[in-house]
Every structure is written in C-alpha cells, then in structure tokens.
Amino acid sequence: MLDINRRILPGFGLSLGYTLLYMNLLVLIPIAVLAIKASQLSWSEFSAAVFNERAIAAYQLTMGASFLAALVNLVIGLLIAWVLVRYRFPGKQIFDALVDLPFALPTAVAGLVYSSLYVKKGWLGQFLVPLGFQGAYSRTAVVLVLIFVSFPFVVRTVQPVIEDLDADMEEAAACLGANRLQTFTRVILPTITPALITGFALAFARAIGEYGSVVFVSGNMPYKTEIAPVLVVSNLEAFQYKQAAAVAVALLVLSFSALVAINVLERWARRKHV
Amino acid sequence: MSDQAVRAGTKSRRGAEDPAIVRWTLIFLAFLAMIILVVIPLANVFYEAFAKGVGTYWDNLYNDPDTLSAILMTLKVAPAAVLLNVVFGFAAAWTIARFRFQGRTLLTSLIDLPFAVSPVVAGLLFVLLFGLQGLFGQWLRDEGIRIIFTWPGLVLATTFVTFPIVARELIPLMEATGSDEEVAAVSLGARWWSLLWRVTLPNIKWGILYGVILCNARAMGEFGAVAVVSGRITGQTDTMPLRVEKLFQEYNLPGAFAVASVLTLLALITLVLKGTLEWRTRREIAEAARLRTARSEA
C-alpha cells in the first residue's frame, strides 16, 4: 500500500528534500564543523585540552553523579510507577501530572530552588545541615539536582509496562505457593527489567549533558564540583575555541558510547526474557 | 488503563494483590519522594518570590527594564523556534510516515540526534560556525551580519535543542492515522492544498498542538545553549532563564525568584494543557475503537 503512496500522494520529493536540507543545515553540518575544529589541534594539544587533571576530575564527577542520580531514579521511579498503576488513592491524577513537572520546568528554575532549599537557612537545609548533610554547593548538590532533572524518565518508561502485566501470571505464581515477594522478584521484575534499563539510560544520558541546573547548585569549583559542560564554557570564555571543541567532542563521545552500551544491554535483557 | 490492570485492582484477583500494609507503606513512600523532590521546590519558588510582598514582586518583574527586556526576548525567540520546528516536524512526518524509501530508518534515528548533544555543546556548534573566529565569521563581518550575540543566534540554538520534539510526536501519530483517507481524497480529485487543509491537518491537529506545547516549554526554558550564543548582554540578549541566573549572581534573590515564578507558572500551565490534550486524544482513540467494533458487529 505504501509503495502506491508515492505514485498517488503529492509532495514526496519536496518534503524529503526539505527534511534533509533542514537537518543538514541545523544539525549535521554544525556537528561536522565541530569535529573539523577539534581536529585542527595536534594530538598533544588535543590530549592537553581533553585529558588534563582538571578535565578528568570533571568527567569523573559528571559520570559519577549522573550514574548515582539515575540509580536513585531507578528505585524511586519503579516505586512511583507501581503505586500509580496498582493502587487507588486520593489525589492520584494530580500526582500523576506532577511527575512530568521536571520536564516542563526550566532547568534554571530547578537550579535556583535547589540552591536555596538545602543551604543552612533553607527549608530542608535547616534540618539536614546540622546532621552533616551538605545539599548545596557540594557534590551531593549536583546529584540531588540531577535526580530532579531526570526524574520522570524511569516512571514514564516503566508505567506502561506495569499496566500491561498479565495478572494471570501473578495468580499462577501465587497458586503455586510463591509469596508476594517471590512473585515480585521472579515474575514481575524480569518482565519490567528492559523498561527499567531504558528508563535508566534516558535518565543517565540526560544527566550527562545537564548544565543549567548544575551551575546554580554546585559552586563550580575546579577539581571539586566542576562538571564537564562547564569546561566547554570556561574554554570559550578564554577564547580557546579549538580546546572548547575538543572537550565538546569528548563529551559527545561519552554520551554516545553510554547510549550505545545501554542499548546493547537493553537488547540483551529483552532477548533473555522473551 | 488496560484491562489486566483493572482486573488486577479488583478483589477477585487476590494472588495479584499486595497486602494492605505493603500497599500503604509504598503509597506513603511514593508521596514522601514526590513531596521532597517536586512539591517542596514548587512551593518554595512562589514563597521566595512573594517573600518581600506583592509590591516588590511586581516591581521586580515590571519595573526592572532588564527583566522586562528578557521577558520580551523569550517571547520572541521561543515562538520562532517552535514555528521552525513545526514546519520541519510536519515535513519529516509526511516523509517518514507516508512513504517508503532507502535510508528511512537512518533518517528516523538521526532526528533524535540533538537529544544526545549537551545543550552547551549545541551552543558551541553555532559559535564555531558564525562567531568571529568561526567558519563564516569573517564573511559575516564583512557583510555586516551578526548572528552570535544577537537574537538570530538564540533562535538557532533553541531550534537545535528542541529539534526532535514535534517530529517525534507527529511521526507515530501519522503512522497510526494511516493514509487511506488521503489516498481516497486524491483519487476523488483533491488538489494538494485541499488535501492538506481538509484531510491531513484536521486529523493531526491535536498532535500538532501537543508538540507545540512541549516544544514551547522546552524553548522558553532553555539555558545552556542560549547562554553560550547570547554573550549574556544584560538588557539585550538575556532570555528569562539567563536573567534568573544573572539576578542570582547579583544576590538579588527576590528578583531571581520573581522571574523564576513566571517560568514555573508557564510550566504548570504546560502540564495542565498537556494533561487535557492527552485525555482528549485518549477519548478520541477510545471513540474510534468503539465505532470500529460497532461496525464490525453490525
């Protein structure tokens, strides 16, 4: 049927041409220029820009904080998705809608609020700071705000899978003598694992690139609370365009390889259980 | 909710039900997480914005010329980016959902590419192209055209960051609606404009609106990409999120929270519209399914 479309429906050439032109001008050519710019550096200049101690500390913080945030979201996201699908409670619809708030809220606002909540006089900081929990201008602050920013991903990928779970399977497990915990770990968890991994991957990838919220809460101290995207900006502000491009290429490679790795993992998990 | 989930929630499915204590513990924990993560920050924005009274709040927004210019800049940049991406999104969806051609899968996955690029890197891309040191920098300067540090640069960076959003909504939607009605219209002699206005667009209008809302929210809130290309010239190239940061750095917290409260309000409106549209499309799909079964039974 779709082969006939090309003879019947108008505009194939025009829309394909426009799509390709727009995509090339806005996305592909700029990325190619970035690669060219970075390749103008010699190898030693490149590695000096990308692998110096300050940069490596920044990558470590970016990857570590993003990983931790995604891990926390894995637990909270599964909890919230489960509660939203399986239980009835008052205010459920508002609860459901609020899950998407981090997607709709500008990251600068998230950063601003999180920087004021966890300081000594803040709403949460007044209880937490005396306990030794420094939730502002620290590495913890970076993790906290990344949790917020990437929070909806796991909920939204796992929720539809829990909705489609076959209750007969759980019944059967119960009839065969499994208790509820066993049913959960042996029957339910394996089915939703691929969705959990997808959600984790999306949250992780989002956190790696995040900039707006983190600059507010971290304090941006080199070697301590500086994240990798900040390096790009500080190179730019020093008019070191090629160095900025080199760090940007490193960042792109990091987030692409994270995505590819998790894609492979996801496919493996899916094959194992279908 | 699907049938199974509904059945799982009823009393007859005891094997698929959690004990009451587990149920209430989990609900409690979910509420706790939600309150700490989302509700408290939300309340805090408005509390801090109004901490010095409504008069100060209004002064911070309306009587600060730099804040006002940032608001106007956002109102200029976001619609431009949305418009560009809606046109692209429709062209891409028409190409991908209506025709089969070589490289179709590749094209589909390339559309998602900007989501994998850090916003700061996105901004850098355009500085490298159009900045003074950039590829076209010298030429643009000779021609007297400025892109970086002016609003066209902001539009470019914002468009890049929000590039996939509309297309990603429209492609699955147009695949679901199918081409039968369009093929019928053309067979009956419809020209392309009446095909577009009378058949294709009416079928996807809610999808387009949905994409516009999501795209607009992201465009108004974008920070990293515009921070890089704007040069952060106070009163000239600041958008609302950039203004929030500047006020924050000047220790003018009530001012920063006042601007932030407007952005938060926009986010809440976005959520309400999004919820309404999702409810509406779900009802339309259910209605269509009901009609289909009625027809097949008859």
Explain what this protein looks like in three dimensions.
The complex is a heterodimer of chains A (274) and B (298). With 274 residues, chain A is an all-alpha fold. Chain A contains 15 helices and no strands. In chain A, α2 crosses α15 and α12 runs antiparallel to α15. The radius of gyration of chain B is 24 Å and the shape is globular. The two termini of chain B are 27 Å apart. Chain B has 2 domains: 33 residues; 244 residues, Orthogonal Bundle (MetI-like fold), CATH 1.10.3720.10. Chain B is mainly alpha-helical.
Salient structural properties:
heterodimer; A: 274 residues; mainly alpha; MetI-like fold; 78% helix; globular; B: 298 residues; 2 domains; 13 helices; disordered N terminus
Topology:
The complex is a heterodimer of chains A (274) and B (298).
Chain A: H1 2-8, H2 12-39, H3 43-50, H4 53-86, H5 92-98, H6 101-104, H7 107-117, H8 125-128, H9 139-149, H10 152-163, H11 167-175, H12 180-209, H13 212-218, H14 228-237, H15 241-273
Helix pairs in contact in A: 2-15, 3-15, 4-9, 4-10, 4-12, 7-9, 7-13, 9-13, 10-12, 11-12, 12-15, 14-15
Chain B: H1 3-8, H2 20-49, H3 54-62, H4 65-98, H5 104-111, H6 119-130, H7 137-143, H8 151-177, H9 180-187, H10 192-221, H11 224-230, H12 240-249, H13 253-297
Helix pairs in contact in B: 2-13, 3-13, 4-8, 4-10, 6-8, 6-11, 8-10, 8-11, 9-10, 10-13, 12-13
Q: Within the CATH hierarchy, at the fold level, what is the topology of the largest domain in chain A?
A: MetI-like fold
Distance between the terminal alpha carbons of chain A, to the nearest Å? Answer: 31 Å
User: CATH homologous superfamily of the largest domain in chain A, by name?
Assistant: MetI-like
Helix share, percent of chain B: over 70%
Order of SSEs of chain A: HHHHHHHHHHHHHHH
Q: Please compute the radius of gyration of chain B using only Cα atoms.
A: 24 Å
Poorly predicted spans of chain A: none
- What is the CATH architecture term of the largest domain in chain A? Orthogonal Bundle
Task: Note the total helix count of chain A.
Answer: 15
User: How many independent structural domains of chain B?
Assistant: 2
The main β sheet of chain A shows up as: none
Beta-strand content bin of chain A: under 5%
User: How many distinct domains of chain A?
Assistant: 2
Largest interface: A-B, 102 and 101 residues
Total helices of chain B: the number is 13
Structural class of chain A, by secondary structure, is mainly alpha
Mean pLDDT rating of chain A = 90
- Assembly type of the chains comes to heterodimer
